Here is the input.
Amino acid sequence: MSMIETDKLTKVFKGNVRAVDGVDFEVKEGEIFGFLGPNGAGKTTTIKMLNTLIAPTSGSAKVAGYDIEKQATDVRATIGYVAQDVGVDEHSTGKENLTLYGHFYHLNKATINQRIKEIFELVDLVGYEKKMVKTYSGGMRKRLDLAMGLIHNPKLVFMDEPTTGLDPQTRAKIWEYIRKMTSELGITIFLTTHYLEEADQLCNRVAIIDLGKIIATGTPSDLKSAIGGDVITLSPDKGDEATRPQFIADVQKVLEGESFAQRIQPAEEELAVYVNNAKTAAPAIMRILADKGIDVETLTISHPSLDDVFLKYTGKTIRHQEGKESSFTDIARRSEREK
Amino acid sequence: MTYFMSDTWYQIVRHVRTDIRIPVWLFVNIVQPMLWLLLFTQIFKSTMEAQGVNYVQHFSPAVIVMTVMFGSVWSGMGLLMDIEKGVLSKMLATPVSRMSIILARVTGSMVMLIVQALIIFGIALILGLNIATGVPGVIYTLFLITLLGFGFAGLSCGLALLFRRQETLIAVINFIALPVMFLTSSFVPSRFLPRWIDTIRQLNPVEYAISGVRSVVTDSWIWDDQWKALLVLSLWMLAGIAFGTLMFRKRGEN
Here is the structure.
């Protein structure tokens, strides 16, 4: 059974910004499905349409068999939502927060208390039920926030960037809970992330989204093996930004046509060469570049990652996108494409 | 509909609980009206009594009404905090009744104000207030100020959703609240007011609350006065809640 099914789901914001641009995808029951993309790609907007917080401009979607517009109340009763911000009430205790949510889902008192007991165990907050949330650490609040999305035993939980801004230990914990939610409770998870590692390690399937469109869907390993072989990444002297484009263009020209280079992919700060076997290709590259007098600062050999998948389809890296304020350029690009 | 009632109730419990847990808030809210009453009666007493006005009798109803106004008009701040902290959008992803969210906030802020009104009555009695209509008059007063408070709290929530910024809301509320308070017969009887203020006063819902309360406290049940107060304040309440709810429908859900 499919838990989510979308049909050309689209959201256009003021100023003709196509935040989500006709996405089609399916999430099956029991899987952890990841929406991977840089900031501003349309991930949160997609979640907010699916959990009924905003209405789509066009297209439709079914969540757990219910239409997100015509059967919004049924959708809300079936799903849990863990937003990017921790939406817990600081001036109440952990238990009071959960109890209030239990009432919102119209559960009776006995069920609420039973569920609270189970959930506090799941997220390792036993002993903190009656403590005020303002005394919780950041990681504890995030765990309580997660718990609030589980009080009514939902079939499907939406998690918007569940580990953004968390320390590595808390992140590992959250991953563990997410795995437990699917394996022990049978909950389907739809999560968004801009961490490649998270999509890679946690998700059964991912959709890669950029500028409001899905550009690839599949299991992480399928997506990576479509790239094949090894990746050799070359970068110039990092001190000199001005010569970087020249370096990338030069290297591309020199290596193009070499039999070992299956594909050459320039990016903003580096250049990726996809090869069958890096063991023999790397020395060859070094020799050729040395002959032409091109200085290489670093050479990295890696297996293809989801970032390489992203790079292949978009010509840019997610890593690079994260570093800068991408929203302006994205919006500009989107409205550009709109014309 | 049944869920609407229970959803509202559980949220009222939350609002009242979180309010009374802040000791400073509790202290300020109880002491402030006492200060107003003591301070202003001391300042104006000799002047007013020279004019033949019993100032405790004149000013106590105004303190009750002003306390309710200043208490309820900040209702939107809590709503903005919930929006900023992501509490609201998380709530909206649950099946909770949409209508209940504004109604619970507005009702929650009235609970404390009713307690404050009773405290002021108590202090005023010690200072020599005479309540002509007795306990029924007190209950009627609570009813009138509830209508007024609902209107202001609804207005405040609506403005909060309109501006979506705490700084803007604070500026606008301060801009509205002080003139509205002074354009009444709160501090001095209307016969001492300039003509233009006396005219504006009759368009001010706060004035209807003050004169309604003052009438049952000082005179007796004069229905010719009360029906106007009841009509104006009921309309005021409906308008405030309608505005708050409408803005919530328009701008609350994203």
Remarks:
- The CA atoms of residues 80 and 149 of chain A lie 4 Å apart.
